[in-house]
Amino acid sequence: MTKKIGFLYLLIGILFLFHSPVLAEDMDEDVFVAPRLSENAIPWDERHPELLDGDMLYAKSAILIEAKSGEVIFEKNADEIMYPASTTKILTAYLALQMGDLKNDEVEISQNAIDLVPPTYTKIPVSAGETVNLYDLIAATLVRSGNDGANALAEYFGGSIERFAQFMNEAAEMLGCSSSTHFTNPSGVHDDNHYTTVRDMSIIARAAMQDSRFSEIVGVNTYDMPASNLRPSRQLVGQTSIIDPTSDYYYNDCTGIKTGFTNKAGYCYVGAARRGGINLISVVFYSSRAGRWTDTKKLFEYGFTQIESITPEALYAEDPRVIEIAGFDLDDPQHGNLTLGIRAVDESKDMTIVGRRSTINSLRDSFSQISSVSWTREFRAPIDVGDVMGVLTFYSQNNGIATYDLVATRSVAARENAPPTLEQIEAYTLADENPWPRISFDLIAPPLLALAVFCYMIFWFLKHRRRRVRPPKLPRTRRKMYR
Questions:
Q1: Residue 470: Cβ within 10 Å count
Q2: The pLDDT of residue 12 is above 50
Q3: Are residues 349 and 301 in the same domain?
Q4: DSSP character for 436?
Q5: CB 145 within 8 A of CB 25
Q6: Quick one: pLDDT band at residue 443, thresholds 50, 70, 90?
Q7: Which of 48, 69, 40, 101 lies closest to 304, judged by CA?
Q8: Are residues 108 and 15 in contact, defined by beta-carbon separation less than 8 angstroms?
Q9: Which of 6, 152, 359, 455 is 20 to 30 A from 439 (CA-CA)?
Q10: pLDDT classification of 451: cutoffs 50, 70, 90
Q11: Angle formed by the axes of helices 147-158 and 161-175, nearest 10°
Q12: d(CA 189, CA 192)
């Protein structure tokens, strides 16, 4: 008997080792069939991420967008109706953040919110009668993918699950989602009438990530939940391996967002990534357990090869203005040529341009056409480093107008004994308390010389005119004859 029990334990241990159980967020009765890559698919090459084809992804449906503009970079069956599973909670949390008072709102958990969660679906968990701060409940719902938390939020803001689902559908329509999106619950518990597309889900995720509170929550895989009236403080751990530094699937540039799984939805992930000023959002539906991470990485790596981020300052720096300075010292190493740097007048204004590389390259070629320069001082030495020589105005299609100072990148000494500039003369005059103009040889010599020339010409004219009008002298002998 003892041997039989030992053999039974051994068999159970072997099954445990070789059968990896699904730590499901959401499970239903149907059997999940993991997708496989096509036999004819070209293997994805990490050294050439710019070469991406739909067959390289496990996901049945996928999309990648640039977060700032919403431009689609890559798509695979993007408009096919799919089940979103727990990625639904993105919209639930987003609405709760918009509708609630995070500091003062306290949510009391109902027994109904707990009972509505099917036995195989994940919970935070919370208890009936427990009072939880709104922010903590939102964070716990996202990080732990708690279906009980989603139900509690729906009841708090909508009064019922059904009423809150109406809010969700109205919000989705307002955000620009298509008629291929329809929600029946706040958690993603499977319902044949609860569906969306990866394109619509990317629209929802893009809106949610623009809320800094949301992006802060979804960027972590653990959350320290404070004590409530019924439970002590505790740490909640999520299942987002791609943002877990200890995971084999960790991706350094990933900043969130939300996992999902049901047998009918497959493994889903809505992700976000940031690199070098570029923000991307990806959605993969019905992928494999590990495939949702590898698919997401492939999409992000591809996106970072297609999108470029650059500022007007960087565009200008690639081909800066060079001006010629008059009156420079003859020993000047650059013979009076002065390169101008650029400095934003309003440094708080974000004028970063994000777009496809072809678009950025066309901006490089037409920079002079999308900017204008007005000069503010004379191009004459002396010039000190940092002096503002002019103002550049940059016109952006998406970010409006911004102005930049064009400044001297070096000092340019003036030539010795060079005549003063107009600015110097004006400065001398303003600094002199004497209301009369400054008198110096340099100033009075030219007008005195002109006056002398003018007087000489008058004298010469009068002298010769007098000679012309004087009567001729008669000979003396002839004068005597007429007496």
A1: 7
A2: no
A3: no
A4: S
A5: yes
A6: low
A7: 48
A8: no
A9: 455
A10: confident
A11: 90
A12: 10
> d(Cα 395, Cα 372) in Å, to the nearest integer?
9
Got the DSSP string for 176-238?
A: T--TT-B-S-SS----TT-BB-HHHHHHHHHHHHTSHHHHHHHT-SEEEEPP-SSS--EEEE-
**pLDDT band for position 455 (cuts 50, 70, 90):** confident
Contact between residue 154 and residue 99 where contact means Cβ atoms under 8 Å apart? no
Q: Which residues are marked as active site? A: 86, 89, 145
As a whole number of angstroms, the distance between CA 96 and CA 412 comes to 61
Coil, strand or helix: which one is 423?
Answer: helix
Cα-based torsion angle of the residue sequence 67, 53, 276, 95 in order, rounded to the nearest 10 degrees: 20
Q: What letter would DSSP give residue 243?
A: G
- Any alpha helices (H) in 19-54, and if so which ranges? none
Instruction: At 270, list the tokens.
Output: 């809505």
Please report where in the chains the tokens 């497959």 appear, as a residue.
Answer: 266
Same domain as 326, residue 287: no
CA–CA dist 328, 336 (Å, integer): 6
Domain annotation covers residue 41: yes
Cα–Cα distance, 260 to 61 (Å, whole number): 14
The single-letter DSSP state of residue 375 is E
* Domain carrying residue 151: 20-305
Give the pair of three-digit tokens for residue 442.
């340099």
Average pLDDT over residues 345-350: 89
Total domains in the fold of the chain? 3
Looking at the structure, tell me whether residues 300 and 321 fall in a common domain: no
Percent helix, strand and coil across the chain, each to the nearest 5: 35, 20, 40
Q: Which two tokens stand for residue 31?
A: 């059997």
Report the phi/psi class of residue 336: left, alpha or beta, with left for phi > 0 and alpha for psi in -120 to 50.
Answer: left
Cβ atoms of 284 and 296 within 8 Å: the answer is yes
Inside any domain, residue 4: no
> What token pair was written down for 437?
């103009």
User: Are both 24 and 93 inside the same structural domain?
Assistant: yes
Indicate whether 89 and 43 sit together in one domain.
Answer: yes
Query: Is 471 within the bounds of a domain?
Result: no
DSSP 253-312: TEEEEEEEEETTTEEEEEEEEEETTEEEEEEEEEE-TTHHHHHHHHHHHHHHHHEEEE-H
208 and 64 housed in the same domain: yes
